[in-house]
Amino acid sequence: MRQSSMFIPTLREVPSEAEAKNHQLLLRSGFIRQTAAGIYTYLPLGWRVLRKIENIIREEMEITGANELHMPAMQPIELLKSSGRDALYGDELMKLNDRHEREFALGPTHEEVITSLIKSEVNSYRQLPLNLYQIQTKFRDERRPRFGLLRGREFIMKDAYSFNTDWEGLDQTYWAMFDAYHRIFKRLDLNYRSVEAESGAIGDEGGTHEFMALADIGEDTIVTCTSCDYSANDEKAEYKIIDEIPTSDHDSFVNTVEKLYTPNLKSIENLTQDLNINSEDLIKTLIYFADGKLIAVLVRGDREVNEHKMIHFLDVEQIELADTKTVEKATGVIPGFVGPVKLDVPIYVDYEVERMTSGICGANELNYHLKNVIPGRDFSIENTGDFRMVSQNDQCPNCGENFKFNKGIEIGHVFKLGTRYSKKLDATFLDSKGKEQEIIMGCYGIGVSRLLSAIIEQNNDHQGIIWPKSTAPFRVHIIVINKKDITQMNTANDLYQKLSDIGIEVLLDDRDERPGVKFKDADLIGIPYRITIGKKIKENIVEMKVRQSGEQHLIEVDESLNNIIEFIKN
């Protein structure tokens, strides 16, 4: 491709709306342009990279036996209502009405559509297993689109769905897709981890893993063991339970519950400073709605509630913190002074609180707390579990060694759905004995457009993008210093044609621009190899530069064309 005829609108200044490095570089290098908040146009270079990513995905899906199809973006709202996900997505669901006032949604994913299709077409065990996938645009009305392609309202996703007769078959498909994802992300040259994960709005009945590209800009936290292979995201991560957690050695901790006057001391920070205690001496009581019913969750003062663990423990669809008015009506006091003693709300106690020798908690009375409160004596510990987020000082549940925390960008997710959707949409088959059974499902997603950002986030420097060879829009960038020099142009055209003839993608910068502009654009765009044709062509010499390492080589064209080709192909 000749650069003079290609649409590559590069920018010198960093756009003010771009926070993340990848977003800045995608805009500056002319790969994308914003159409509206969270909605982008992919320009020619960006689209070339996306197609390369998609081709790698298709090749690996082919190996698993998955069939590609294409489903509609518009979904009848009745399908989402049949699974209950219309309410679960809430305001994130983009809805519209046709001229007949029938309601539709722009698909956030396609579990209901594919399940409905299989329900109508599959009725016998002989038609199973099946594994179907598509690469298509998805829509979610994010409250705050940010970081460019990483959190948008319109994005490209690969979503696959498997259908089996039993759990053993699902397990085989699940791990085949798991392995395929590893191959895909390795081929994309990503530094990534696969971790145990939560299923979110898609839901699962079995297992689920996330694939995370390591990056400081990532919105997810990855917890890994420094010794064994344990890894999970922080929503799923567990820790080694310590049998007893003694409270700090203060003279005030005796057997009798005592009331403390704590005027306006609502926060953990204020309490620890005023009472001269540590935050781990406090019992924090938080009031939640769990599918509309009020509950209280108790964690230590230095911990945070893990709402995802609570959802699983309670087997509910949704959990959200109650507002101040609701808390006051249920407990008689505002948040900050709520405690478990004589609390008329179901109480769920984190393991650490259960094991505390004593603690300080809210007194359910304005401006008062209670000290010397003993779990099991002064409040019920009937409902206990792991209800908190892991922390830096926790230990691995498998080997007891320390944790390491990294930030990551979610790039893929695999789920064992079981019968979550087939049960609700009545997708069944007749087994070998003629008995009706529910189809066992799995689903497997990759954020295709997210990968564009993740790759750049891991591969850049102060000059611009550094594309891995697997996904670069072109393999070679030829720079002609002086377009008016016939020898330079003839050499460039000859090299361009020979490289193109053997299947090497070349971008030839034949623009009538100053050399400095061409070099800056080349570094910004980040194509792996650059060949500069300038004054030394009179000596039959061109300059080869490797974008990743910065190393440069002077090469004699006539004698070493094969060497250039071999160098580029490696």
From TrEMBL:
Q: What is its main location?
A: cytoplasm
Q: Which Gene3D superfamilies match?
A: Anticodon-binding domain, Bira Bifunctional Protein, Domain 2
Q: Where in the cell is it found?
A: Cytoplasm
The entry lists its GO molecular-function terms as: proline-tRNA ligase activity
Q: Which UniProt keywords are present, listed alphabetically? A: Aminoacyl-tRNA synthetase, ATP-binding, Cytoplasm, Ligase, Nucleotide-binding, Protein biosynthesis
Task: Please give the InterPro entries that the UniProt record associates with this protein.
Answer: aa-tRNA-synt_IIb (IPR002314), aa-tRNA-synth_II (IPR006195), aa-tRNA-synth_II/BPL/LPL (IPR045864), Anticodon-bd (IPR004154), Anticodon-bd_dom_sf (IPR036621), Pro-tRNA-ligase_IIa (IPR002316), Pro-tRNA-synth_IIa_bac-type (IPR004500), Pro-tRNA-Synthase_IIa_type1 (IPR023717)
Against HAMAP family, the record matches this protein to: Pro_tRNA_synth_type1
The record comments on the domains as follows: Consists of three domains: the N-terminal catalytic domain, the editing domain and the C-terminal anticodon-binding domain.
Family, as annotated: Belongs to the class-II aminoacyl-tRNA synthetase family. ProS type 1 subfamily.
Q: What is its quaternary makeup?
A: Homodimer.
Protein name in UniProt: Proline--tRNA ligase
- The organism of origin for this protein: Chengkuizengella axinellae
Q: Which gene encodes it?
A: proS
